[in-house]
Amino acid sequence: MSITVYPAIDLKGGKAVRLAEGDMERATIYNDDPCAQANVFAEQGAHYIHVVDLDGAFAGASVNGEVVAEIVESFPGKVQVGGGIRDRAAIDRWLERGVWRVVLGTAALKDPELVRAAARALPDRIVVAVDARDGLVTTHGWAETSDISAADLANRFADVGVAAVLFTDVGRDGMLKGCNVRATAELARSTRLPVIASGGVKGLVDIADLARHASEGIEGVICGRSLYEGRLDLRKALRLARDETL
After folding, report:
1. Domain residue spans of the chain
2. What is the rounded distance in angstroms from the CA atom of residue 195 to the CA atom of residue 149?
3. Which end of the chain has the lower number of beta carbons within 10 A, N or C?
4. Given its phi and psi angles, is residue 128 left (phi above 0), alpha (psi -120 to 50 degrees) or beta?
5. CA distances for 94 relative to 31, 67, 86, 98, 119, angstroms
6. Mean pLDDT of the chain
C-alpha cells in the first residue's frame, strides 16, 4: 500500500520558514517567496502540499492569508491549509478560494461542535490536527498543553465525516530526529480515521517505515526541514511512498 507525501510550507511574516519544536523564536527562513517554493515542489512531482499560517495559529485568525491564497492559485495540485482557522466563516472562505482541505487544531479541542458540524456539512474536507507533546494535545500554535491524550481527541471525531487526523509529535518537529513512527502507528490503530504523520522526518527511512504501516491506517506524511536542507530527495520520497523502486 502507498502513502501520500505532503511537502510543507510554513508561513511566518510572509516567508517560508521552519520552526524548531514549534518555537516561534526559533524560526529558520528557507524561502522569501513561498509561491516559488510551492512551484519547486510541483516541479519535483508533488501533487499535494501542506500550508500552515504560523502567525495565524498564534493570533487565532488569518495573518498570511494573501500569501496562502497566492499559493493556492499558483500550485497545480491540491493544497491543505491550517493555522488560525477557528470559525465556520473562515472554513468556508478558504474552501471557496480553492483550498482542498482545511486543518483544524485548536478548534478541535476548544470548539469541538464547530468541527463536527463542519465535517458533517463538508465530508472529507476537514482534517483534525492532533499536535502532542509527551502524548498530550497542545493548542494555540503549540504554546499551551492540555490534559487530553492524542487518541482521546481523535476519537471524538471518528464518525462525523473528518477526512483524516494530522498527528504531530511537537518535540520532534523541525529537529530532524526521525518521525515518531511508533506513536503514529499506535494512534492509527486506535482510531478509524486515516492518520497523517508529521514531525521530525529526516530521510527516506522515515518514509519507508511509515509506508509499512499503511495497512494500519497511516495515510500520509508531512515533510519540511529535511526537504529544505536537502536531506530528503522529494522525487525519491514520492516514488518510495508509492511503493515504487528507487
Report:
1. 4-241
2. 15
3. C
4. beta
5. 23, 12, 12, 7, 15
6. 92
| Residues labelled catalytic | 10, 131
Q: Letter for the amino acid at 52?
A: V
pTM score of the predicted model? 0.93
What was the pLDDT predicted at 147?
83
The answer to whether 155 and 190 are in contact (CB under 8 A) is yes
Residue 22 neighbours by CB under 8 Å, 6+ apart: 131, 138, 141, 142, 143, 170, 173, 174
Name, in order, each residue with C-beta under 8 angstroms of 221's C-beta and a sequence gap of 6 or more.
Answer: 3, 4, 5, 6, 179, 196, 197, 198, 201, 206, 207, 210, 241
CATH class of 4-241: alpha beta
DSSP assigned state of 134: T
Span 17-55, pLDDT tens digits = 988 777 788 889 999 999 999 999 999 999 999 999 999
pLDDT of residue 7: 98
